[in-house]
Amino acid sequence: MMPRAKLKAQKVEAAQALLADRTLPEGGAWITKARNAAQARVRDMGLPTKRDEYWRYTDPRRLTDAGVVAGALHDTKGEPLVFDQIDRIKLVFVDGVFDEQASDPLVLDGVEICQLSQAARTDLHWARDLYGSLDARAQSPVERPLASLNTAYATEGVLIRVTGKPQKPISLIYLRKSETADAMLHHVIRVEAGAEATVLENGPIATRFNQVMEVDIADGGTLHHIRAQGRDHERVGSAHLFARLGEGAHLKSFTLTANGALIRNDSIIWLDGAGGSAHVAGATVGDGAFHHDDTVFITHGAPRCESRQVFKKVLRGGAVGVFQGKILVDQIAQLTDGYQISQSLLLDENAQFLAKPELEIYADDVKCSHGSTSGEIDDNQLFYLRARGVPEDTAKTLLVLAFLAEALDEIADSAFADDLRTRLEAWFERRG
Amino acid sequence: MLEIKNLHAELEDDSEVKILKGLSLKVNPGEVHAIMGPNGSGKSTLSYVLSGRDGYTVTDGSATLEGVDLLEMEAEERAAAGLFLAFQYPVEIPGVGNMTFLRTAVNAQRKARGQEELSAGEFLKVVRAKAKDLQIDADMLKRPVNVGFSGGEKKRNEILQMAMLEPKMCILDETDSGLDVDAMKLVADGVNALRDAGRSFLVITHYQRLLDHIVPDVVHILSEGRIIKTGGPELALEVERNGYADLMAEAQA
Ligand SMILES: Nc1ncnc2c1ncn2[C@@H]1O[C@H](COP(=O)(O)OP(=O)(O)OP(=O)(O)O)[C@@H](O)[C@H]1O
Ligand SMILES: [Mg+2]
Questions:
Q1: Does the structure's ipTM exceed the value 0.85?
Q2: A64 in a domain, yes or no?
Q3: CA triplet B147, B149, B155: central angle to 5 degrees?
Q4: Residue A254 falls within a domain, yes or no?
Q5: Which domain holds residue A301?
Q6: Cβ B95–A406 below 8 Å, yes or no?
Q7: Does some domain include residue A381?
Q8: What is the number of structural domains in chain A?
Q9: Diameter of chain B measured on Cα atoms
Q10: Is B221 in the pocket of ligand 1 (CB under 6 A)?
Q11: Where do the SUF system FeS cluster assembly SufBD core domain residues begin and end (chain A) (predicted)?
Q12: What is the pLDDT of residue A77?
């Protein structure tokens, strides 16, 4: 074992090397302050390594390596993008850069939307107290240098302030056109008291991406977040979702992940007001050179909150799935209701699932449960279906979708769930 | 309809375990045959080998449905050819709705036979009518396949599947076990409604009572992997009165 001090020194050195010839982007006073602070955090923490507690199963090097970023584009054979049939306001990013021409006008009743690049130029902005604040707060007890790196250097993203109940979802579409783009996106969402909105994200983003979404939901507000990280195989990326929930606030976040050489999703949720609820779910399908890591940290910081983590992974052909999920219950968080399940369905012997469920509870009157399983397709179920005339491939797809159902059921609106289910079906049918 | 000749089957994983040891029987179109026999004699194994479950090796003999070799076909092909097995232990499938399951099965078979798939509307109409006859309520149709169903509900669900799929050769493996008196009547009515000149049944049961409702043409006694005696409905009464001991002794002699 390397001594801690030496390890730390190496991490800091790596950060210095990475930041040496990078200058912080120009901007107004408020964002410059946040960027400076974030840059200082990165210098202080250093870059992540496989020796860090929450990087044990996933090697972070490819997410920060200085070498050339390159990966072939994926031929989707004309398949329409997910959510195509859904009426929504579209914000398009190409290789991580906002494309105004391709996007709808940023006008929708009940919400203010603004590009980060524009907001950064102003001296005063509603996001000034938010940008980088949830990232900063979430650096303890677990360090998250990739998020701070993003806060310091990101110039693209959107700032969304939900003041009412917009009729349409806000849809962030990430197209990938370059084989070498290294993108950073930083979004901030503020849901005002009693407001409610749906934010969709879909697309491969870039060959390498580092994405942060900071969400602040005021008392009684609700955010639905549905994300489809599909398509291109040859890309790596990290996405952080930070959320703070006020009293009686609700968050429902669902992520579908398919393909991608290395995708790490961190969800750091802070239940900060009594009676809030946070549901974080994920459905993953991976085949071949696929490494996917869901790392969730939910803090119950107030009484009577409910949290659910539902993660399902279907893996084959050498794919690796990781789940690290923690429920932390503060002393004041009495009557907490916490649930966590992570399950994998391994379609062959080469697939691998690594799970690390954790509970840390300081309140005495709580209900928390967690479970993790790894299994194969059930032969009895398969035979039952085939004995009724369902061909083997169809039967397997049906059983795989049944396995993923508990995660998909976390999506409140069935139109989105149905769309994603169809994609998953096609993914399996293509593989036979 | 169904012709089994000198069928020998053993466990795939353990060829020491020989289960079917020269079983022969023939079911003509429109006939109902019953199979009775002690626990472990090979009744369920016969039904699995016929319907194509993995795990068994057929070492000798043959089985044909309308002259076509069953043993060469995949399980789903056998189903499409008209074979149906009502399971002794119907399988629970969480996450798959009963209705989705039924429609997928019906349409898969229609497709395999070159027929057009049923529209959602047509399907719904038929399923509702048949479910009503079996006193299966709408809620049971919506729930995941067999999940949380009582023993009797599971068996009624098997008969509903049979009614929807309209197979030619129906094998019922202890469909009466776990049924109360009324449910047994319901299931028997369901089976009788399907009886016709072009459809045959092989009814596996331990109890004569079922055969009061579904009157068989022929009764077979299966013991240690072979049919040791074949007769009419009176054979079932004999078993009910005297058990298998005499019959087995007779076969030994
Ligand atoms: N997969 C298996 N593994 C091990 N033994 C098996 C397997 N399948 C069947 N057998 C054995 O073969 C024999 C016949 O079993 P089978 O289930 O066919 O009997 P059965 O006549 O249907 O009995 P019951 O009346 O109890 O339903 C039993 O001894 C059983 O234990
Ligand atoms: Mg049996």
A1: yes
A2: yes
A3: 115
A4: yes
A5: 4-376
A6: yes
A7: no
A8: 1
A9: 60
A10: no
A11: 181-403
A12: 79
